[in-house]
Amino acid sequence: MARCTAPSRGHRTASAAANCPACRNRYGGYSSRYSYPSYENSYTSSGRTSSSGNYNSSKGRTRKASWSNSGSTIYYTSAEINTLTPVRKVVEKRAEKPEIRDIFLCHAWDDRKESALELYDLLESNGVNVWFSEKDIPLGTSFLREIDKGLAKSKIGIVLVTPSFLKRVQNEGVAEKELSALLATDQLVPIVHNTTYDELRDVSPLLGSRNGLDTQEDSMENIAKKLAELITVNEKNYS
C-alpha cells in the first residue's frame, strides 16, 4: 500500500499532492477539492514576528489593549496590560480638562540629548503633546516638585529611568515622603532604559515598586507607540 509523503515532504502545493502516490491514487488524480493539512498556516502562525508589529509569543506579547484601535499592530504582555489599565482610567477622566498636555516626560539632565530626546522625538512623531522636562524644568529646582506640578497639567507622567537618573536620585537624597506623594496617583509610568528594576529598587524602593515599561523587553519605538495609544481618547472609546 502506497504511503502518504506529507509527513516528510508536505503537501503545501498542488504539485506536491499530485506527486504523492497515496493521495494521487486515493483521489483519482489531484483536484481542487483536495483538502490537505494546512502546514503553511501553522508555519506562518508559529513564525509570526516583526511583520505583525511587535508580536512576540516567546516574550508574551500576544494581547492588544482594549483602548487600541482596530488597525493597531502593537501587542502587549499581560503584565503591561495590568500595569497600564489603571493609568488608562486616569487618562479617560482627565481627557476633557482644558489646556492639558498628553504626557509629562521626566529625565535626568545627562540624558537630555540622547535617550530622553529620542523618546521625546518618537512621542512627538506619534502625535503626542509632551511636557519635556529639559524645556520645562528650570535649573536648580527640585525635579520631583516640578514633576508634581507637571503631572497636574498632564494626562499622565513618565519617568525615563536610566543609570544617569539613578545617580541623580542618589546624589539628591530623595525624600521618601516626596516620592510617596508623587506615587499616590495612577498617573506615573516608569520607563526603564539601560538599567533594571532591581537597580531602581535599590535606589528608590517606592519608585521601583511601580510597574512600567522596559526597553529590554521592547524597543523604544514600540514603547512610544504604546504610550501614544494609552493617551489617545476618541469619541468611540470614550463613550
Quick recap of the structure?
By secondary structure, the protein is α/β, with parallel strands linked by helices. Helices cover 46% and strands 10% of the residues. The chain has helices at residues 6-9, 14-19, 21-26, 39-46, 78-94, 115-125, 133-136, 143-152, 163-172, 176-182, 197-203, 205-208, 220-231, 235-238, and strands spanning 101-106, 130-132, 154-161, 188-192, 213-214.
Order of helices and strands: HHHHHEHEHHEHHEHHEHH
Give the % helix. 40-55%
How large, in whole angstroms, is the Cα Rg?
25 Å
Q: What is the residue-mean pLDDT, rounded to a whole number?
A: 78
Largest β sheet strand count, sense and barrel closure? 5 strands, parallel
Number of helix segments?
Answer: 14
Total count of strands: 5
Derived from helix and strand composition plus strand pairing, the structural class reads alpha/beta
Q: End-to-end span in angstroms?
A: 65 Å
Q: What's the oligomerization state?
A: single chain
Q: Low-confidence parts lasting 5 or more residues at pLDDT below 50?
A: 26-51
Placed side by side, the strands forming the largest sheet appear as: 2-1-3-4-5
Q: What best-fitting shape do the alpha-carbon axes yield?
A: globular
Task: Report strand %.
Answer: 5-15%
